[in-house]
TrEMBL record:
Residues 79-235 form the TACO1/YebC-like second and third domain. It comes from Paenibacillus roseus. Signal peptide: none annotated. The lineage of its organism: Bacteria, Bacillati, Bacillota, Bacilli, Bacillales. This is Probable transcriptional regulatory protein JFN88_05360. Belongs to the TACO1 family. YeeN subfamily. It holds the Pfam family Transcrip_reg. It is found in: Cytoplasm. GO terms for cellular component: cytosol. The keyword Cytoplasm applies. One of its GO terms (biological process) is regulation of DNA-templated transcription.
Amino acid sequence: MGRKWNNIKEKKASKDANTSRVYAKFGLEIYVAARKGEPDPESNRALKVVLERAKTYNVPKAIIDRAIDKAKGSSDEIYEELRYEGFGPNGSMIIVDALTNNVNRTASAVRAAFSKNNGNMGVNGSVAYMFDATAVIGVADKTLDEVMEILLEADVDVRDIEEEDDNVLVYAEPDQFHAVQEALHQAGIHEFTVAELTMLAQNYVTLPEESVASFEKIIDTLEDLEDVQQVYHNVEFAD
């Protein structure tokens, strides 16, 4: 089970080290979510999920408010949600989620990120079937038994609960994200170390040393792209 947490922790550490880029990506994601329905998280579930995630990355209120205000205005910017799938060295698999107002630009940039770093793009469905869409909620200052009891009393279904690095991590179906958080809120828990909708690999690979730099270059290049929101992979790095 630790592999799941290691990849989530690695992703979070990477984002925490690049705050300005992360804030910009969240600003766009909040804007797009707010445009999908009412710009009110109480009536717009997609927006509420993004805001809960943003809290765990300490996205400033000014950025959140600016994105929501923009969604309330007359902006005619239209963004498409896209998913790309591809392969890195030695059987590594990568999923790229993007928000873009220029599909050709994004497709070209993602393809170049793969091809220039010894990877290659796959067709739709070539990689995603090896990953599971998952809601992950992390809680500190509670034991595994305490969290399990809260969720059982609230009759919330989850896939798994585990304890890692002083965190209790709840893994659930994506449509249970709100149910898990609401149950924890009702129990007086309002701060989360992790609140993510992610893609977790069903199986992980460890790359030979000579392939690590090439793989990391693919990931870094993809994450640096303005249109890319999330990058998921099935590589487990050595501690």
